[in-house]
Amino acid sequence: MRYGDVAVKTANKWSVPDNASEYTTLIYQQMNRTNEEALNHEGRIYRHLAHVEGVLKPLEISDTEIRMPYVSYRSLDRYLSANAAIVNNTQHLRWFRNAAEIIFRVHRQRVLIADIAARNFLVNADLSLQLCDFSESVIIPVEHALDEFISEDSLSMKSDIARFGSMLYEIVSGRRYEFYVTSEIEADLDDGESKTYRQWPTSEKFPDTTDVFLGDVIRKCWLRDGFCSMDDVCVALYCAHVPGEEETDAM
C-alpha cells in the first residue's frame, strides 16, 4: 500500500469464510500467523542491515507493518519494461555492478538474500539501485563459515550467486531461467523457466550464453565451480566492458 511518499508493507490477512468448518478456520488462522511471522522476520533482517549501503532503509518497523520511503522510479523490472527502447548495455553493466556490490555488502553481514530478482531492486532518481524484500532471507549463525553454510531450505552464498546470474540473464536476453537445488526431491523437476534439481546442475543443463552480453559471467554464476563469492562476481563485472561502446556513454 502507498500513502503519499510512504509505502507500507503488511502481513496478508485472510478472512475466514462464513460457515467455515473448524478445520478450515484453523488453516486460515495458521496462514495468517505464518504471514505475520514472515513480516516480523523481514523486519529483523532490515534492522540487521540498517547500515548497509544500497539496502532500502525503512522509516518504521513494527510487528504489524514495515513503512518504507516510496521510490518513484519503482522496481528495476518495471523501469526496464517502460524504458526498454532507451536502456543499453552500458547502463545494464552499471546496474549489474551496483547490484553486485550491494549483495556483496549484504553477504558480509552474514545474510543470504534468496529472492534476488529485478523486481526487488528499486531504481532511484539518479538510476542507482536499492535492494528490498528480505522475506525469504536468512542470517547465517556465527558458528558457521559463510562459504560453507547451507540452510534448511538449501540457501547458500552460491545459490545467491546463481540467482544473481539468472537475473542478469533475464535482463540481457529477455529469457527467464532460474533453478533451485534440493536433495528432498526424488527426481529433477522441470517447470518451464524454473528448474529444481536434486544436485547442482552441470553445464549442459544451462541455456547457451555464447552470444549473450556478459554470457561468460552469467555462466560462471551458475557453474558449481564458477564464482564462489560476490567479490569474485564484482571483480569480473568491473573487468567487463560493452563491445563497441565507450563506458562513459550515457543511457
Automatic annotation (TrEMBL):
Q: Which UniProt keywords apply?
A: ATP-binding, Nucleotide-binding
What protein name is recorded for this chain? Protein kinase domain-containing protein
GO MF term set: ATP binding; protein tyrosine kinase activity
Leader sequence segment: none
Looking at the record, the residues that make up the Protein kinase domain are 1-251
SUPFAM superfamilies from the entry?
Answer: Protein kinase-like (PK-like) (SSF56112)
What is a single Pfam family found in this protein's UniProt entry?
Answer: PK_Tyr_Ser-Thr
InterPro entries given in the database record: Kinase-like_dom_sf, Non-receptor_tyrosine_kinases, Prot_kinase_dom, Ser-Thr/Tyr_kinase_cat_dom, Tyr_kinase_cat_dom
